[in-house]
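Journal club prep, notes for RB
We'll compare a predicted complex against what the paper describes. Inputs for the zinc ion case:
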Amino acid sequence: MGLDPKALALRTIITLPDPRLRNVCEPVPEVDQAVRALMTDLLETMYDAPGIGLAAAQIAIKKRVIVIDVAKRKDDSASADPMVFANPEILWASEETSSYEEGCLSIPEYYEEVIRPARVRVGFLDRDNKRQEIEADGILSTCLQHEIDHLNGVLFIDHISKLKRDRVIKKFTKAAKQAGPDKKSGGRDMPAV
Ligand SMILES: [Zn+2]
């Protein structure tokens, strides 16, 4: 991690087949100082990876907290637009679907098309412990659903065919036995989340 003091907040992202990715996370009673610190760590870890979303489950913390920033994707020089969510909950999902080639920081360098509801409305607690709702479409909608899945122990490979899923799990299980995972995600249709 180097000697950069900023790096001190970086957490280790766990990867397939780590069983902790299957943990169901618990709601936070409120967004207090500790939860805000977790949000900050998640954001710094996400930017460093780099990715556009990260769930607490991915750093082996069993709390329902996620962070997202889809702004940087459009233009690397664009200012960051960090979004933080505690206890996010899908209140409504459209019948209309959309498909994105998804990736995941916990399943490095693996990408597959996933079909999900095109639009969702999500309720959550913000950084100030205030109840908020957001309606999202496009990549933000996909990212929210992907991250909320993480809080329920669900991975994007659970949405693809069993054949493909079994193949990728086998590949990562084999790789984990041979070497420690230390790979960066590549830029594809959708950056890793
Ligand atoms: Zn993910």
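Talking point for the session: Residues 108 and 182 are 9 Å apart (CA to CA).
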